[in-house]
């Protein structure tokens, strides 16, 4: 039906990707005493002052907003680790470094809610932006090489990167596949022919001036 988008080409909003990322776990150092929490995603705690524990990001952010904890950024968010990732990304024209699937969303959540817990926060933010730029450049170069012989692609991409390129990749591969298969083109033409046509009511009468 016209007007409906193909679900294979649909994308998530930035807010939806952040919502999905909030279920990832992160280490916090609480400054409160609280018993174990039994949640749908699992049991967390008990919480004791100055004893590190793992919780979902959404809970870490909620406690941080109330001044009940500090958040320990993940190891990959250090200047040293990000510098190595950036250098490796620049050195390879086709491969992608292993990063958390939600590295963009996780870093954004921490920049927004726990920037005082991130050492060298401005350098970390700059490095992550540089990594994103380099990876998107390589993705764009890779998409330009798509051809009718491309039936699948294997890329080590993040949620945000996959979300951006999904419509282009799925649409492009489908088009190439149809071009290489005359039967699919004929079937598409038959479906177009079967669509109900507006009834021909003859020439319309001119309105009187």
Gist?
This protein has 209 residues and is mainly α. It has helices at residues 14-21, 57-65, 79-91, 103-113, 121-144, 159-179, 182-194, and strands at 25-30, 37-39, 42-44, 53-56, 69-72. A three-stranded antiparallel β-sheet has the order 4-1-5.
Note down, in words, how this protein is organized.
The structure is a single chain. The chain has 209 residues and is mostly helical. It contains seven helices and five strands; from the N terminus they run H-E-E-E-E-H-E-H-H-H-H-H. The protein has helices at 14-21, 57-65, 79-91, 103-113, 121-144, 159-179, 182-194, and strands at residues 25-30, 37-39, 42-44, 53-56, 69-72. A three-stranded antiparallel beta sheet has the order 4-1-5. A two-stranded antiparallel sheet has the order 2-3. Mean pLDDT is 80; it is low at 1-9.
Sequence stretches where pLDDT stays below 50 over 5 or more residues = 1-9
Q: Kindly report the average pLDDT value.
A: 80
Structural class: mainly alpha
The value of Rg in angstroms is: 25 Å
The geometry reads as elongated
Sequence of strands across the biggest β-sheet: 4-1-5
Ordered list of secondary-structure elements with their pairings:
Blueprint: H1 14-21, E1 25-30, E2 37-39, E3 42-44, E4 53-56, H2 57-65, E5 69-72, H3 79-91, H4 103-113, H5 121-144, H6 159-179, H7 182-194
Antiparallel strand pairs: 1-4, 1-5, 2-3
Helix pairs in contact: 2-4, 3-5
């Amino acid at each position: 039906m016209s007007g409906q988008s193909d679900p294979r080409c649909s994308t998530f909003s930035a807010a939806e990707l952040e919502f999905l990322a909030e279920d990832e776990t992160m280490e916090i150092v609480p400054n409160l005493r609280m018993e174990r929490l039994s949640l749908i995603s699992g049991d967390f705690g008990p919480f004791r002052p100055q004893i590190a524990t793992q919780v979902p990001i959404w809970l870490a952010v909620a406690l941080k907003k109330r001044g009940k904890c500090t958040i320990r950024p993940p190891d990959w968010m250090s200047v040293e680790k990000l510098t190595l990732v950036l250098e490796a990304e620049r050195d390879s024209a086709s491969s992608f470094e292993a990063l958390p699937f939600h590295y963009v969303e996780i870093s954004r959540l921490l920049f927004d809610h726990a920037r005082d817990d991130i050492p060298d926060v401005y350098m970390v933010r700059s490095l992550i932006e540089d990594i994103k730029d380099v990876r998107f450049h390589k993705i764009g170069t890779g998409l330009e090489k798509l051809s009718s012989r491309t039936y699948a692609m294997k890329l080590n991409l993040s949620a945000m990167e996959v979300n951006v390129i999904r419509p282009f990749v799925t649409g492009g591969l489908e088009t190439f596949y149809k071009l290489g298969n005359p039967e699919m083109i004929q079937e598409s033409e038959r479906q177009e022919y079967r669509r109900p046509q507006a009834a021909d009511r003859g020439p319309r009468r001119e309105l009187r001036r």
